[in-house]
Amino acid sequence: xxxxxxxxxxxxxxxxxxxxxxxxxxxxxxxxxxxxxxxxxxxxxxxxxxxxxxxxxxxxxxxxxxxxxxxxxxxxxxxxxxxxxxxxxxxxxxxxxxxxxxxxx
Length: 105
Hints:
Elements (H helix, E strand, L loop, with lengths): L17 H17 L10 H22 L5 H9 L12 H7 L6
């Protein structure tokens, strides 16, 4: 991620590794959540679909971050960004601990 440190806000990343891939995925998930009434009451069809998508994406994000086989997220990243073949930074302990609680009620 070092090549990205000097870039200005909203500039496409120079280095797109699995950390970037996950950051982008979670950011898009937040976009779904922002379109939903936070009380979750009287949701329209579009809001219900957005909420269901956000929940599904949250479960997916948790699974990708906590994947102990270290395969799925690496393969997804490499298929989108072939230059990342074999270059896989690991998530730190803080991120792993937070990810464990993504699906808590």
